[in-house]
Amino acid sequence: xxxxxxxxxxxxxxxxxxxxxxxxxxxxxxxxxxxxxxxxxxxxxxxxxxxxxxxxxxxxxxxxxxxxxxxxxxxxxxxxxxxxxxxxxxxxxxxxxxxxxxxxxxxxxxxxxxxxxxxxxxxxxxxxxxxxxxxxxxxxxxxxxxxxxxxxxxxxxxxxxxxxxxxxxxxxxxxxxxxxxxxxxxxxxxxxxxxx
Length: 196
Description:
The protein is α+β, with helices and mostly antiparallel strands. The protein has eight helices and seven strands, in the order H-H-H-E-E-E-E-H-E-H-E-H-E-H-H. GO terms for molecular function: GTP binding; GTP cyclohydrolase I activity; zinc ion binding.
């Protein structure tokens, strides 16, 4: 058995143990392939550990004279609460003010995915996205706001359905300049209207 096969077997046996622990029979027909399915799902859900956000951003940097705010709004994401391994579901708004360089627009949602596809807390996720963009693109400022629902609050514990948590991370001009900060919050809170 190869190292990979051995690791897969260990993971799948752990899933069987978990199923048994909660009162299920891992040998019943409907669950026979579940351990392998769970392993494959986890490999995808936690794929962010295998990616470097700086490398993603560096692959699409372009020289620009633009020095006005660039905003990518309503980026859907799914993550996992590191305390209970339950889903976090939400939207991210990311803005930055270029300082000689812009990044390809698709790279911003990709960076969100890199950090979201790890065991997380929302506050840290917000900071990680802002810091990756600030450190790699070196803009005049970065603003990140996340609005999310946490299944660890909805499915268990206090069971508060539809409660939303908002977190923000502001860097550079977004933190220092009230006008920039106000413009950012105004833009992310404005109705989107018709999609093109």
